[in-house]
Amino acid sequence: MKAKTASAIVISAALVLSFSACGNDSGSSGDSGSDSSGYNLIPQDTNGDGYITLGFAQVGAESGWRTANTQSYKDYFVEANGFKLVFADANQDADKQKQDVRDLIAQGVEVIDLAPVTDSGWEPVLQEAKDAGIPLIVSDRQLSVSDDLYLTYFGGDMLAEGNRAVDWLEKYIQDNNITDPINIVHLQGTIGSTAQKGRSQALSDAAPGKGWNIVYEQTGEFTQAKGQEVMESFLQQGKDFNVIYSENDDMTYGAIDAMKAAGIDVESKIIISFDGNKSAVQMVVDGIIDVIAECDPLLGPQVGDLITKAKNGEQIAKVTYSVEGVIDSTTAAEKVKTAFGS
Ligand code: GZL
User: Fold this and answer.
1) Per-residue pLDDT reduced to its tens digit, 197-220
2) Is-contact 259 266, C-beta < 8 A?
3) Which one of 150, 241, 314, 334 has the fewest beta carbons within 10 angstroms of its own beta carbon?
């Protein structure tokens, strides 16, 4: 069914939205003149040890993306760069993560970076950080909270990532004159994370109007093991499918393992993935995965730069999105040389 095409399908977008917030340093407490969002804290060396101590509330260690993301922080936030790092791993537990942030506040860190497991119930904790005079940055996954509860967001635009994947699929169908019904298996990430919500919304917004059928939808919790498990469950139903829309590479690996174990020719399926781990990009080169919507995990240095700018009273954007595109057969051979992880 699947016709490999060499046609150049290149959809790439670099979207950076910036709503300037001006943090003016007005005192040793880290208070600043209110920025345009009403947020008035900036990172300061409040304990005078010569370093900014960052408390990093990390999601967990569920995926290759997460491992690379954590390493980028551990590599950047070192004394040679003027920082100390206190690291908290929530093990993908949203309730534990809220306690992690409260523990970081109690430890008196000088700035907090929160990569939220899920996006709900954060207002009280963010208010506690603000009341404690500790500036808080949201990274990796956005929160739907008032702008006066956090200093800045830096990370992917998940809806845009999903739209790039959907646009790629639509063009692939047209370019290959595919007339068969489009039956999609949808492997979702952690339910309630903005990574899952944005990527899922792109598909659910597009499918009805394009006549695409979502024949199965389950969360694989962004892990390879769970991705394989839910794909095995679907395959036991014996339903037809020709597209897999998998919200991260780790679940994609699991789904591929499940299909191989069931004797399915994986190259006969259109496989869409997210992130861009090196081994997934190699699978694009090898013709197994068809497209990866990029999601950059190497956020440490860029978050560090935002902290330094805010500390120096420079304007920083309220929201900055990573520059991301898609990786397909026309770009994978080059991209695999610099892809993150293994
Ligand atoms: C995306 C990030 C997601 C990745 C997954 O920014 O939050 O979480 O896509 C990771 O691999 O588990």
Assistant:
1) 999 999 999 999 999 999 999 999
2) yes
3) 334
195 lines ligand 1 (CB under 6 A): yes
In a shared domain, residues 165 and 287: yes
Count, in order, helices (H) and strands (E) of the chain.
10, 17
59, 62, 63, 247: residue to mutate for ligand 1 pocket, most atoms within 8 A of CB:
63
Indicate the range of 32-36, 71-75, 98-102, 210-214 predicted with least confidence: 32-36
Q: Which domain holds residue 140?
A: 29-157+296-325
Q: Which atom of ligand 1 lies nearest, measured to the CA of 247?
A: 9
Summarised one tens digit per residue, pLDDT across range 89-119 is 999 999 999 999 999 999 999 999 999 999 9
Does residue 8 sit within a domain?
A: no
Residue 20 lies in a domain: no
pTM value surpassing 0.85: yes
Write the single-letter amino acid at 20.
S
Atom of ligand 1 nearest to the CA of 193: 7
Write the Ramachandran bin of 290: left for phi over 0, alpha for psi from -120 to 50, otherwise beta. Answer: alpha
CATH number, domain of 43, equals 3.40.50.2300
